[in-house]
Amino acid sequence: MELIDNQGWVYKLPSGGGYPRLYPPDKTQGQIRVPKTGHTRGHAFDNWLAEIRRKGGHWPPGRR
Amino acid sequence: MDWYSVRLETRAPAGAEVAIDEDAADKLMNQLEGYSGIVSTGCVTWSATISVRAPDAARAVSQGARIIEKMAGNVGLPAWPQVRAEAVRQDVLHQEVEQPTLPELVSAPEAAEILGVSSQRLHELARAGREFPAPVYELKTGRLWLRYAIVAFAACWDRKPGRPEKAALLRERVASALTDCGITATDALVRLTADRTVVLEIPERGGVPARISVGKIIDSLSCAGLGIKPGGSSSAEDLEKYLANGHPAVVFENAG
Fold this sequence. Notes:
- The complex is a heterodimer.
- Chain A is α+β, with helices and mostly antiparallel strands.
- Chain A is built from two helices and three strands.
- Chain A has one domain (2-54).
- Helices cover 27% and strands 14% of the residues of chain A.
- The model of chain A has no long low-confidence stretch (mean pLDDT 82).
- Chain B folds into three domains: 2-98, Alpha-Beta Plaits; 101-162, Multidrug-efflux Transporter Regulator, Chain: A, Domain 2 (Orthogonal Bundle); 164-256, Gyrase A, domain 2 (2-Layer Sandwich).
């Protein structure tokens, strides 16, 4: 995934269960839970993308 | 009625014990799943975004905030002060998240390509033009411009036909040679005098002669096929010292 491979984000599945989390490289920004429907376009995906962008994630990816 | 994305952000008051119960945040995420909910937590904050149907943004905020507050209370998240509550129509949000967050940038060669000119000509335009867009970044590897700024310049650029006069070309060549070697306008001033002579001057820095960069400047010009001599009727046995003391020198094209 672009954010994880190229922008320093970390994806973690909590050991005790619960929602997977995305951690931005800027630790002051906290963590975002990954929705179960997050990989299909729809309101949840857009809400999730907006939160990622708010915490410094760059989406869509830049020019290569 | 339209769909709205509503986000509520809370922040711990100063002095509050700040430990978010992550299990509670997971429960909130679960409760908000039917609202396309997203939950974020941080050291001193938690926030939630949901989607609701409402007649307008103002009522969407009110409705969405009530839902989030209620659900958050149910799962035991702290009722911290709300510092942000906003709503955006879902289709508008969709358009926004489709737009890149990073602007499209172009390097000097790419900008030259857009303008249909050589890299050297681009540097001349960048140096001479009051209308030419300023770079947004000046890195050690070079300058970067916003692509749309270069495209906008290209659209209204009044290209003058014919070759520029020889003296102006020489001036631009000098400036270009210096820039390519990392010598900036603060290290060396290049100007065209009224009698169309290209003159180079090394500005003093707090009364200290700039000897360190003078040798580099002379070498840069020599590499570009340019020579340098004292201005007017002056002569100087030590050209470097002459320049370092702030005296103007004339730049000329080497023969051959």
